[in-house]
Amino acid sequence: MIYQTINGKNIISILFIVYIHCISPNVHAIDETISNIEYWDNFIEKLYQQTEERALKPFSAVEILVRDFLWQIESDNPVLDIGCETGKNAICLIESGHNVVLLDVAPKAIHYTLENLRELNLEGSVVGTYKGKIEEFDSEYGPFKAIVGTYVFSFIPPNVFEQVMKENIFDKMEIGGFFAGGFFGPEHTWANDPTLTIITKEKLEAFFVNRGFSICFIEESKDMVVTVAGNEILFHTIKIVAQRIS
Q1: What is the pTM of this model?
Q2: In the CATH hierarchy, which fold is given to the domain comprising 34-244?
Q3: CA–CA distance from 178 to each of 63, 74, 145, 213, 216 (Å)?
């Protein structure tokens, strides 16, 4: 994400103004004719244009994973990058020597990620792509030595969250593999959106531990931010890196 500071306030200049337009319940109520794929394709297109056709900085949890943990395991399995956007996490992973499978519901995300990787001569390390939802991820893929994403996991519907996390994420990881991702906390401005999965730090930690993971890193943050559109929101998030031990 890109941050700016104006008059002492954090400004999320690109990513979350588009997120708000994509997932706000009010926006969905206004135009229900636009499909989920179209919403996220629009998001990716705006992200790509507003970042001058360059990928953003990697998600901090993914940077921590690559720097401190992923190098410790010897595995030829690839990393699954969920919600690849325009390649911010894929570039970080591939530059560190890992092969990647890309997953995104937006076809433009796959397209622009591959385009950004080609410019860096890194596209050869993409060993697979999947255009679709996490909930529909094909069983033929895996195992992975790591699965990463930004805040995509909070967009898994609450009624299927536990099942999808187990069957489509945890069960596709090798023993000893890693998870790195982010989740929305209960004080987030969007916490009342019934389509989002909201979770506390304590429940998230227990969720992983109870499913055979060891917590390597977990961090909670609460920041008042102002979008370029002038919307002030409380951005409450939990970032986690965890290793599957059983």
Answers
A1: 0.85
A2: Rossmann fold (3.40.50)
A3: 13, 12, 6, 9, 9
